[in-house]
Amino acid sequence: MWAELRTSLTGVAQDYTVLPLRRAIFLLAVPMVLETCMESLFAIVDMFWVARLGAVSVAAVGLTETLMTIFYGVATGASMATTAMVARRIGEKDAEGAAESAVQAVILGLLLAAAIAVPGVVFAPHLLRLMNAEAAVVAAGSMFTRIMLGSTFSIMLLFVMNAIFRGAGDPAISMRVLWFANAINLVLDPCLIYGLGPFPRMGVTGAAVATTIGRTAGVALQFWLLAGAASRVRIARRHLRVRRAILSKLARVSGNGALQYLIAQASWVWLIRIIATFGSEALAGYTVAIRMIIFTLMPSWGLSNAATTLVGQNLGARRPERAAAAVRRIAFYNMAALGVSGAIFLLFTRPLVTIFTRDAAVIENGMLCLRIIASGNLFYALGMVLMQAFNGAGDTATPTRLNLVAYWLFQLPLAWWLAVHLHLGAAGAYWAIPAAEGLLAGMCLWMFRRGAWKQREI
User: Fold this and answer.
1) Residue 269 burial by CB count (10 A; 0-12/13-18/19+): exposed, middle or buried?
2) Per-residue pLDDT tens listing for the chain (458 residues)
3) Cβ contact 415:274 at 8 Å
């Protein structure tokens, strides 16, 4: 066990099209889980230090993160397409094709980042006002927002190039890049925010500068690794040109991937609006519960990413049944893990909720919400793995359509009907969440068994 753990963290080269599935999943999943946790650490560290500056600074960070959600959706779509295409070429043992796909993914990422960074930097104060920010928040946070939106080049390249490493079957590099970037951010955040030692006191702007420096350093490390002799996808000068056919295919798959993410995110915004109509206690209880749920889902997202790589590489190696077997096994592991966490939530609801709040009304709402959402853990576990299997095959359109049906055509109308029409209040909206996830998992399973994803070309 410890030997395998060391192997997964050091990133020893493996052929995931022939390796025993249990070992292949373990070696891929461990660094992917840690990478997922590292990506969320940037925002957590920033908020931890900025919180000491006061409500105005916290509001500026929160509103900017909301604006960045759109960009994260675009970056997620690009990374989905990149992993799928690189994994397919690696499975085909086409090193030249993998390198060419990697370069086109970087070019696409730079184009997408420019489309967001330029207007974001120019119109940052106006965007904050559109978010109904108070004048004090606009004054204090405009530079923070400008820097964060301007840093989309670094964020996009981090996403895309880590997707290249994952597609190549080397997630340990992605993990170490984010360790490196986060370490720099951890050190610079308090120094630049509060002016420690020789550093200037920059306030909330310092958080953006520290995060941007950390991410940019991570990107520099990625480029160095891609150009190195040990890289499984090695970029040479001959690959540095635009290949329109590959770029067009990546853009199409990325567009569906981004839409897939944004459909889901937008539905959650409207769900929160429904819950908010039942008072601040209901909204606060939901917030507490959903943060605990998301915390336990993070390792599952990392485990699900292993399905993306294994599907892509095994389809490239013309081994579709092995790809399907990998997905089934990962789904089983994920359901077991989230089944245990769901049981813990159901058994220890009150002690867990009271960690975050002492308000009696919020505790009651949080307990109710946590129990209802946790009841659908098995659905979440199955659905997320199957969605990533489709993405790994390059079929980002199917999950997009299924998200649209499950969230917009089912979850939101059901939440309103139960909460408002049947007078169940916030509980009705809570129940719509596992119901929609159950429908989504069922539809994913039906589409997975049909097997059209096995013939998908990318």
Assistant:
1) exposed
2) 788 888 888 887 889 999 999 999 999 999 998 888 777 677 677 778 887 888 788 888 878 887 888 888 899 999 999 999 999 999 999 999 999 999 999 999 999 999 999 999 999 999 889 877 888 888 988 999 999 999 999 999 999 999 999 999 999 999 999 999 999 999 999 999 999 989 999 999 999 999 999 999 999 999 999 888 778 898 888 989 999 999 999 999 999 999 999 999 889 878 988 998 888 788 888 878 887 888 788 889 889 999 999 999 999 999 999 999 999 999 999 999 999 999 999 999 999 998 877 888 889 999 999 999 999 999 999 999 999 999 999 999 999 999 999 999 999 999 999 999 999 999 999 999 999 999 999 999 999 999 999 998 88
3) yes
Short-list 289, 254, 276, 268, CA closest to 369:
289
Spatial CA neighbour of 212 closest among 188, 191, 179 = 188
Alpha helices in 151-203 (DSSP H): 152-167, 171-194
Look-up of token digits 């090193």: 95
Task: Evaluate whether 413 touches 270 at the Cβ level (below 8 Å).
Answer: no
**Cα–Cα distance list, 21 to 116, 128, 360, 391, 401 (Å):** 40, 49, 48, 19, 30
3-class state of residue 2 by DSSP: helix
DSSP structure class, residue 410: I
Cα(70)–Cα(403) distance, integer angstroms: 17
Please answer whether residues 338 and 422 qualify as being in contact, where contact means their C-beta atoms are separated by less than 8 angstroms: no
What span, in angstroms and rounded, lies between the C-alpha atoms of 74 and 295? 23
Amino acid in position 223: F
On whether the pTM is more than 0.85, the answer is yes
Closest CA relative to residue 144, chosen from 218, 217, 184, 202: 202
Side chain identity, residue 140? A
> Is residue 120 within 8 Å of 143, Cβ to Cβ?
no
Among residues 425, 328, 344, 423, the alpha carbon closest in space to that of 382 is found at 328
- C-alpha span between 310 and 58 (Å, rounded): 41
First to last CA, the chain: 36
| List of residues 6+ apart from 313 with CB closer than 8 A | 16, 17, 87, 88, 90, 91, 167, 169
